[in-house]
């Protein structure tokens, strides 16, 4: 056996091992080059077989007949750019006259098979230009977030999409969201990633965890307020409604609506205020919304109505005041009582992990993306963390958050504990127990309460 043969065998064995154990490394080392060549070589024939070509123009046919030349072949969309990524290829196409972006979307499965890729998705960049994202391997099997992400104020990366792009939670674009998931579906891990992304930012975190605080209270050092029972949650939500009213009064006094102020500088929410006057934005995380809506007596029913009314008010009016809601639960349906569907209508962002019933999937996506309902109920039990994410625009994606243990989340919250803002109206709800170090000195807490 020659040295060249031995080297070739070693390279093939190394490639096979990488493809099995480290698909991302295999893709960057071997797969991206082979896939790019495969796409360029097969492009015209694949597009023709998938029905993504258009007949030549009539003047070309007339010219060919007049000059006795061969009849021109049908023309596929023109490749404007082929860009490799860490998970696949991005193909930007210029559509021919008569073609539509839905033609590319309808042929995505055929393109995936023809180009031997793991997945193919498409989106319209602008009129006549379509971006086709092809993944070379299952990026959701072992989630690895990129080292660099486009993090900015109130926008944090929380998961990876099936096309290899990063899924962000952008509170200024989608202020309120609903996250559903059965037990052991990965909902808690998604919530931890959300807290981990928000911890380094200048934002106040408020938690409502009626499971005696087992999910959120370990992260207490980064939370400005926490509630572990429906009674405390009702008082906390009332305090947030009062804060919202105070913020609106501040905005009103600082609107700058004189005639010499341009329209773009008139203050209508906290982000239009100067930095020195801008109140701290608040993200409210409700761990199990059903615990706030259930009741067994008239007194509990009055408390329940008080809680739901406060949540609806915050969902309707909280965006401009910088108050954002993250509502989580195993079940979300109309049987939770009046006000629930009104609350759902204000929750623009929707994320559904594996669910136990189709009704919850319909409550999540039935009014915005009906085709996402079927995708949500098909999530297998063994793929914990896999979820369907959608919004009011009707678009949806399969996503999966990287696994973050409770210990990792606790360490991160402890590291950024100094960034926890002290909000006077929330001081009575600041946790002072359950951590190694008290969050607020007793004297300071007594003064704030008084």
From TrEMBL:
Gene Ontology molecular function: ATP binding; DNA binding
Domain of life: Bacteria
Chain intervals for the UniProt region annotation (Disordered): 424-450
Sorted UniProt keywords: ATP-binding, Nucleotide-binding
Keyword Nucleotide-binding: yes
PANTHER family in the record: DNA TRANSLOCASE FTSK, SPORULATION PROTEIN RELATED
Name assigned to this protein: Conjugal transfer protein TraS
Organism: Streptomyces fulvorobeus
């Amino acid at each position: 056996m020659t040295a060249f043969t031995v080297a070739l065998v070693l390279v093939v064995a190394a490639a096979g091992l990488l493809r099995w154990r480290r698909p991302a490394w295999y893709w960057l080392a071997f797969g991206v080059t082979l896939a790019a060549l495969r796409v360029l070589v097969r492009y015209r024939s694949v597009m023709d077989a998938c029905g993504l070509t258009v007949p030549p123009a009539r003047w070309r046919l007339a010219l060919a007949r007049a000059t006795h030349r061969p009849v021109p072949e049908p023309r596929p969309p023109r490749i404007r750019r082929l860009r490799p990524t860490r998970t696949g290829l991005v193909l930007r196409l210029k559509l021919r006259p008569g073609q539509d972006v839905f033609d590319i979307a309808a042929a995505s499965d055929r393109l995936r098979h023809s180009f031997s890729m793991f997945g193919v998705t498409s989106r319209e960049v602008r009129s006549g230009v379509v971006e086709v994202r092809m993944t070379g391997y299952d990026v959701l099997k072992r989630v690895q977030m990129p080292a660099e992400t486009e993090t900015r104020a109130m926008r944090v990366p929380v998961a990876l999409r099936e096309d290899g792009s990063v899924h962000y939670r952008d509170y200024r674009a989608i202020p309120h969201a609903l996250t559903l998931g059965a037990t052991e579906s990965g909902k808690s891990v998604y919530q931890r990633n959300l807290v981990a992304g928000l911890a380094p930012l200048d934002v106040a975190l408020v938690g409502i965890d009626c499971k005696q605080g087992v999910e959120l209270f370990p992260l207490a050092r980064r939370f400005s307020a926490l509630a572990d029972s429906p009674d405390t949650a009702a008082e906390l939500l009332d305090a947030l409604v009062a804060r919202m009213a105070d913020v609106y009064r501040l905005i009103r006094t600082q609107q700058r609506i004189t005639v010499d102020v341009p329209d773009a500088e008139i203050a209508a929410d906290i982000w239009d205020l100067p930095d020195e006057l801008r109140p701290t934005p608040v993200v409210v995380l409700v761990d199990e919304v059903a615990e706030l809506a259930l009741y067994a007596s008239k007194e509990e029913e009055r408390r329940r109505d008080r809680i739901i009314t406060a949540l609806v008010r915050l969902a309707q009016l909280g965006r401009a005041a910088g108050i954002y809601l993250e509502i989580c639960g195993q079940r979300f349906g109309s049987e939770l009582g009046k006000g629930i569907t009104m609350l759902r209508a204000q929750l623009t962002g929707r994320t559904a992990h594996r669910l136990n019933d189709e009704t919850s999937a319909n409550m999540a996506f039935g009014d915005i993306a009906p085709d996402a309902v079927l995708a949500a109920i098909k999530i297998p039990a063994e793929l914990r963390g896999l979820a369907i994410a959608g919004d009011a625009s009707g678009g949806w994606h399969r996503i999966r958050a990287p696994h973050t243990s409770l210990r990792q989340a606790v360490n991160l919250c402890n590291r950024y504990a100094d960034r926890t803002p002290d909000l006077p109206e929330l001081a009575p709800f600041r946790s002072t127990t359950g951590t190694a170090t008290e969050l607020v000195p007793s004297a300071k807490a007594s003064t704030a309460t008084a």
